[in-house]
Design brief:
globular; mainly beta; single chain
Length: 119
């Protein structure tokens, strides 16, 4: 069974850091892309970035570029989202999702982890 489980969310002050984890099971993360997305209260879900493990490509959306870093530990079947210099507008539920390749469209989602950034 394909599963993705996020963790690491919480409450942090503006300017702080958090690291989210996405532990996957039921498939080798090395053979897929993992995309991070988020949904802020009252807003539509938006992309954060993506790691394509098959070719090592990384992509970041403009609002987080330079502040967020995606990495993958294939041995642990885990993908990380390191979030630095957090802003109140980063407050959202963060999801990881499996894609065949970056931006091909998710076929499995995690349940999400909540991040709250206070000003």
């Amino acid at each position: 069974e394909v599963q993705l489980v996020e963790s690491g969310g919480g409450l942090v002050q503006a300017g702080g850091s958090l690291r989210l984890s996405c532990v996957v099971s039921g498939f080798p993360v090395a053979d897929y892309a993992i995309r991070w997305l988020r949904q802020a209260p009252g807003k539509e879900r938006e992309g954060v970035g993506c790691i394509s493990n098959s070719d090592g490509n990384l992509y970041y959306e403009a609002p987080v570029r330079g502040r967020f870093t995606i990495s993958s530990d294939n041995a642990k079947n885990t993908v990380y989202l390191q979030m630095d210099s957090l802003k109140p507008e980063d407050t959202a539920v963060y999801y990881c999702a499996r894609e065949m390749f970056c931006y091909s469209g998710p076929d499995h989602w995690g349940q999400g982890t909540r991040v709250t950034v206070s000003s």
